[in-house]
Amino acid sequence: MEQKIVVTYSTSFKMQVIEDIERGRFSMNGASVHYGINGSQTISKWLKKYGKNHLCPKVIRVEKPNEKDQIKELKNRIKDLEFALGKTQAKRVLGDCFLEIACGQLGTDVESFKKKADSQRFITDLSNQSKP
Question: Hey, where are the domains in the chain?
Answer without folding.
Answer: 11-55, 65-130
